[in-house]
Amino acid sequence: MSKSINVRTPSGDYEVLIGSNLLENYNFKWLVQNRQVLVVKDSMVPNEILENLNMSLANSEARQIEVLEIETSEKTKSFEGLMPIFEALNTNKFNRDCLLIGLGGGITTDMVGFVAASYLRGVDLIQIPTTLLSQVDAAIGGKTGINFSGSKNNIGAFYQPKLVLMDTETLKSLSEQDFIDGVAEIIKHSLIADQKLFANLENIFLNNKELSDEDLIQIIYESSLIKAFIVSNDEKEKGDRALLNFGHTFGHAFEAIQSLEGFSHGQAVGLGMICASNLSFLLEKISLEELEKIKNLIKSVGLPDELPENFNMEDFSEAMSRDKKILDKKLRFITLRGLGSAEITEDPPEDLVLKSINL
Ligand SMILES: NC(=O)c1ccc[n+]([C@@H]2O[C@H](COP(=O)([O-])OP(=O)(O)OC[C@H]3O[C@@H](n4cnc5c(N)ncnc54)[C@H](O)[C@@H]3O)[C@@H](O)[C@H]2O)c1
């Protein structure tokens, strides 16, 4: 079983293919025949995944296949971290007609995307995201980049791939926390755009259902469809793409404060979504019943629904006011209007914002 999404953007259209055992079966010939190919692989991705990919590439008559393994972290998502990739391209005399493949999580796809955007002013790119978060979020939409001087993703480019392959086999080796972090983004997509997906997630997680490959393919497909639809309409984040930040204004502040070091992105976004839902309730945009449903789902997937003991309100407020979404000193929040619909709320009353942190 596989599902396909056609992402249409002003800079080009491409297919997102979602399925199981895709890498060993995909015919890459239309993209790789007679071309030099560099696969950049996250070292945590199991070797069997790379072997399957290499076999398919070789069968597709690539002229040359090079593989570079990289260690990934938010620290190596940097100019220094890019150097080995540029060096591999340069040393192997890769020309403008070469093809780059990013095989890893969001850090890898962001970095490889940025190299593809800038090497010889742009070469073709295939993204093969191997974490749930990178499948439903990072690898779709063409945002690429690195961290610089203590800020996240502040250097980069919009650059669309030629193809995105999401193979559920790659998710089997993920840690539980990395898997849950991806589910947090899927919940986010359901809340801002798809009540049916929300109900589907409730059915799976409230009933503690074991996820089959088919379930996984279905929720990845529905979630990716939302991201693809939003970025197709707003490639460069001038309008609706901001809705994807639901839970992130609070979430970034949770992530940033020292007292919560060790909090994963998904955990911070999970708490952020509860705060943003509280705010939506206080602004009378969702009912108490809807608020409870959201909290139950977030809790049922293993995300925290309470502030950690070492939470410090002063640090949190400071982190909020540093957040990049402060526009002309206004705080911008994404709030819900019922389940499955969202809007931008600028500068809500401060007392309501503070109240919404009281989980
Ligand atoms: N470009 C965008 O639109 C966008 C959107 C959301 C997030 N991001 C970026 O994505 C990054 C987060 O993505 P992520 O959660 O995938 O992080 P990640 O790339 O750090 O991957 C998470 C962990 O999983 C490991 N891993 C990857 N694939 C694996 C596999 N198949 N088996 C076992 N382990 C594996 C990685 O080594 C890492 O330890 C952040 O840097 C964020 O800024 C970008």
How does the SSE layout of this entry go?
Elements: E1 2-9, E2 12-19, H1 22-25, H2 29-32, E3 36-42, H3 47-59, E4 64-70, H4 79-91, E5 99-104, H5 106-118, E6 124-129, H6 132-138, E7 143-148, E8 151-158, E9 163-167, H7 176-193, H8 195-205, H9 213-233, H10 248-256, H11 265-282, H12 288-300, H13 313-322, E10 326-327, E11 330-336, E12 342-346, H14 350-356
Parallel strand pairs: 2-9, 3-4, 3-5, 5-6, 6-9
Antiparallel strand pairs: 1-2, 7-8, 10-11, 11-12
Bound molecules: nicotinamide-adenine-dinucleotide (NAD).
Residues 42, 44-45, 72, 77, 104-108, 110, 130-131, 133-134, 137-138, 141, 143, 152-153, 170, 173-174, 178, 181 line the site of nicotinamide-adenine-dinucleotide (NAD).
CATH superfamily (homologous) name of the largest domain? Dehydroquinate synthase-like - alpha domain
What is the CATH third-level topology name of the largest domain?
Dehydroquinate synthase-like, alpha domain
Number of domains: 2
> Cα distance, first to last residue?
41 Å
Mind describing the biggest β-sheet? 7 strands, mixed
- Gross morphology: globular
The percentage helix is: 40-55%
What is the topology, as strand order, of the major beta sheet? 1-2-9-6-5-3-4
Which kinds of small molecule does this entry bind, naming each only once?
nicotinamide-adenine-dinucleotide
